[in-house]
Amino acid sequence: MPNSLVVIDDLVLANRILYRLGVVDGFGHVSVRHERDPERFLLARNMAPALVTAEDVMTFALDGTALGDPRAPYLERFIHGSIYRARPDVGAVVHSHSASVIPFGVVSGVTMRPLFHMASFLRGAVPVFEIRDAAGEDNDMLIRDGALGDALARSLGDGPVVLMRGHGSTAVGRDVREAVFRAFYTEANARVQADALRLGAPTFLSDREALRSSESNAGQIARAWDLWSRLVSETG
Length: 236
Ligand SMILES: [Zn+2]
Prior knowledge:
Elements: H1 7-20, E1 29-33, E2 40-44, E3 57-61, H2 78-86, E4 92-96, H3 103-106, E5 128-129, H4 131-135, H5 146-156, E6 161-164, E7 168-173, H6 176-199, H7 207-218, H8 221-235
Parallel strand pairs: 5-6
Antiparallel strand pairs: 1-2, 1-4, 2-3, 4-7, 6-7
Helix pairs in contact: 1-6, 1-8, 2-5
Bound molecules: zinc ion (ZN).
Zinc ion (ZN) binds at residues 76, 95, 97, 167-168.
């Protein structure tokens, strides 16, 4: 059933932007908390993000149950519900399998940290979710139920991003624009950190620098969003 909520427009744009930026491909998904009911969230049906329209958006309870909608949902919708339940401050969630972040979840002794100011929201070390700790060796790497979603939310803690070993990453924000910004610049930080590690030992942003920088950037997210939304609106 079509939704008339204000956040739907941004959610549809976010799907297309994340594809255009290379954060998602045929897989990955983005959700937003329901603007009138914090116990619900909105997420597209099971489909490629770049093809999502307003008519494809479904409404879910935080336990991942689709509300009055028989269409097939994403298997990993529990990522979203569990994080919304654990984090009242979170208004949007992006989950992706982008390749650049994968090395930082699988090599012991290498931690993703903010290397440049656009990723200063990553302040400190980015946590890594190890699915074996929650599901044991007999798992298919996917967050396919609420217990695994809750375990992932615990790994995320109160941070902006959690890496998922051998799988991808999940970024959160107060709204969909901040979550998209963070997902994109997490990917960018992974690329520049891998480049820097090939040259030598990088100097990361200190916690103080990261805090000051992220405060400065908070007012600039609209600038990136305006560009990205124009890009996908003009080119479909
Ligand atoms: Zn996934």
